[in-house]
Amino acid sequence: MEQAGNKTDSKIAVESKKGDIAREKILDAARRVFSRHPYHEASLRMIAKEGGFDHPLIRYYFPSKADLFGAVVAEVVDEFYAAHFVWMKGLDLLPPGKGLALLIERIVDHHYESPNGMRIIMQNISRTEALDAIPGYPLIPQLLAVMRSNFRQKVLLSGPEAEIGQFFASLFVTIVLYLGASSTTAQFLGLDHAGPHYRAWLKSSLVFQFLPWLTRLSLPTS
Amino acid sequence: MEQAGNKTDSKIAVESKKGDIAREKILDAARRVFSRHPYHEASLRMIAKEGGFDHPLIRYYFPSKADLFGAVVAEVVDEFYAAHFVWMKGLDLLPPGKGLALLIERIVDHHYESPNGMRIIMQNISRTEALDAIPGYPLIPQLLAVMRSNFRQKVLLSGPEAEIGQFFASLFVTIVLYLGASSTTAQFLGLDHAGPHYRAWLKSSLVFQFLPWLTRLSLPTS
DNA sequence: TTATTTTTTTGCCGACTGTAAAAATAGAAT
DNA sequence: ATTCTATTTTTACAGTCGGCAAAAAAATAA
To answer: How far apart are CA A117 and CA A35, in angstroms?
Structure first.
């Protein structure tokens, strides 16, 4: 949004022409709308109104609605890809209990700073048909696989590989549910999804739900 | 669908006039469509095509799309309400570990016999705004409260009331996620959501995820 | 300045939506 | 048989959708 000082030195930012900031403006508006509405319910006109421009402008930068959504998902996946390196920093130096607690704390804090990513994923995760029907969504299992692989190299686990994969998948989908649909989940708990109570519940409950599992995977054999 | 022998003895089924079977035909088709598509994506014409009738017929029995969806959700909630009594039968005679395993096994088996209920709930659970925006959905927290209350009377728990509520809410939303979005969840696990592997994984994984929590709630103090 | 390119806006298309009312059909009662 | 009512089908409408083309505007280059 704010790219100050670009008026005078237009030569420095060769790549960032005027069109690029318009492109980002569209992506930002689309992110907000797609985080509130599933793919088919969100419309290009909604996005245009959200961003304060006319809807055919979208077509100038993105050939179709599917392309726009795909670009948004790709952006979100990229951000998660970058973030998960930070999340894992120093995790190998801690015992499983502390490590899992720190990891979850980092993920939750990240979400409260930038909640749209989880929400966009969550909005479209429920369909019975193949996930491939939603543009960009095939990237998500890939992201999960990369995260698992990197975590695998970082932290020493001794359980069978298949169960480690299941542990990660469970943790991942549960986090997406608790964070991405936090409004609904919090309502079931009788909490306010934006308040500190729910945020604290998230951290303790996720640790409590997954620590026994992780413990089993990090010990030689039970 | 099949109500044979109604031609001759039309006097017996006084309540079930001709219109009532049409009403059920519509509800059945709507159930199937709403289990595959979120509320706004599903259309009355989809439902009509699914059921093999003309779409304005819906309006004769249901004043609006919201009313139809509300009737479907009410039906689903009623079925869950009836089912949860069966799920809890005999649970008080078992230790927590066996009891939770049996409960989950019953829920999973129920879902595989009639999967549409969980799917319909899951399809529309992700929206950020209030759950009340979806017709019929305010019934769901009520259902959860009733189930919790009945379980509370059946099984002896000693933990703080607030945590018991959180335990139930977590178990509930996790089951809805794992079952209602089984296609996606199974894909993350690398399994086929209709196959026996995923079904077995569901049972063991849910028990493993929630037994430690339940154990804490059923003991005097840790 | 003028000429050229890039960006934005206006207007429209066919398809689809929920809702509405009219027309057709069926069944039962008189 | 006819009349009346309940049910179903047909037709229609006003609104929104994604996509497209051409005009208008703005920015850039000459």
So the answer is: 7
pLDDT mean over A89-95: 95
When scoring B126, B173, B214 by the number of chain A Cβ atoms within 10 A, the one with the most, hence best to mutate, is B126
Whole-number Cα distances in Å, A221 to A34, A101, A155, A215, B209: 45, 22, 17, 10, 18
pLDDT at B129: 67
Residue type, A42: A
Nearest nt to the B57 alpha carbon by C1': D8
d(CA A70, CA A213): 34
Distance, Å, B56 CA → D11 C1': 11
Q: Do residues A116 and A35 lie in contact, with contact meaning Cβ atoms separated by under 8 Å? A: yes
pLDDT at B132: 74
Substitution target in A170, A210, A215 with the highest count of B β-carbons within 10 Å is A170
Please report, in tens digits, the pLDDT of each residue of chain B (222 residues total).
333 333 333 333 334 466 688 999 999 999 999 999 999 999 999 999 999 999 999 999 999 999 999 999 999 999 999 999 999 999 999 999 999 999 999 999 999 999 999 999 999 998 766 667 889 999 999 999 999 999 999 998 998 998 999 899 999 999 999 999 999 999 999 899 999 999 999 999 999 999 999 999 986 544
List residues of chain A with CB under 8 Å from any CB of chain B: 35-38, 40-41, 119, 122-123, 125-131, 141, 144, 165-166, 169-170, 172-174, 177-178, 180-181, 183-185, 187-190, 201, 205, 208-213
Q: What pLDDT, on a 0 to 100 scale, did the predictor assign at position A11?
A: 35
Helix segments in A89-195, DSSP class H: 96-113, 116-123, 139-154, 161-175, 182-189
Spans of all domains in chain B:
1-62, 70-218
Q: Which nucleotides of D are covered by protein (CB under 7 A)?
A: 6-12, 16-22, 27-28
**What residues contact residue B134 under an 8 Å CB cut-off, 6+ apart?**
B39, B69, B124, B127
* CATH code of the region B1-62: 1.10.10
Please give the average per-residue pLDDT across A1-25, as a whole number.
Answer: 53
Cβ atoms within 10 Å, residue A172: 20
The CATH number for B70-218, chosen from 1.10.3470, 2.40.30, 1.10.357, 1.10.1060, is 1.10.357
Minimal CA separation from A15 to chain B, in Å = 36
